[in-house]
Amino acid sequence: MNSNHKQTINVRIGRENDFPLGWLIIGIIAFVAFFSTIANGQNAVSRVESVGFTVSEMDRAIDFYTRILPFEKVSDKEFWGADFEHLSGVFGARVRVVRLKLGAETLELTEYLNSNGRPVPVDSRSNDRWFQHIAIIVSDMDKAFEVLRKNKVRFASTAPQTLPKTIPNAAGIRAFYFKDFDDHVLEILSFPADKGARKWHDLAEDKNKLFLGIDHTAIVINDSGASLKFYRDALGLSVAGESMNFGTEQEHLNNVFGARLHITGLRTAQDGIAVEFLEYTAPRDGKPFPADTRSDDLWHWQTSFETNQIDPLSEILLKNKFDFISSGVISPNGNDLDYKKAFLARDTDGHAVRVIEK
Question: What is the pTM of this model?
């Protein structure tokens, strides 16, 4: 708790020698109330500021995301020094960070210039718990798919899939998974008239725009209830909807035979990129997140959340024994970063979350 936030309370409980017990009770109540306030959103994250991952060759990545996909480069910087080492958890780290925009949303790519992070495992499947992707909204699925085919991108799905009426909350949604050259999985997604945020339908009216923006980032998790304790109860996101997805279309979208998923969508207070849980109720053979993962490994993704109260938020994560990648809250000095404070932590399954205060 912040030592500058104090108040004097004059209380007498029972006899004079019971007074310390009264103070203890009051302290416990105040402590619980303090963290309850954070969990209920007063000091929660306000938005997903960006989603990013580690790449092996930055120039090749820029070419992929700006030529095949129409992202626009907005910044290209290098960072190094003790502050970045403590933030990333990688000693001696020197990185090149490129930020790209598609519509109103931001993708952040990081190349570690002086370390050789491990590639995405060749036997990765969509139900492994290191799986994460971004969903890019398109105005026309068939045209977007042809762009990807012409550029010979690697498929992760069999073909674009239209989810059936047997999945009411997702019926009519069309989706397709593909990969960049580092095997990061991406999704193109189109909504029928009765699904999706209004902004995507408004943007789709411009026939000159095919790829519109990032709707959400999806992460594979082991247990929805456990993950809600991190994203809803600690970070303050709210549940926007749920769906149980199954059937041959879902199997061919994820390329996992017998796939049955409990999907939970979560949003922040501000509009922007959402977070989606993918809990495979079947099959349950997805591999766990590697315990020795480092930020320079190519399967390292990070979802960045913005808050105006980073210190109390870090306290609640520490109190609930979530793992930190950073050595604590870092206040970088002398680097041209877009934030004043930041830390990296891991959720229940191992996915990296960066929290920043601007």
Answer: 0.88
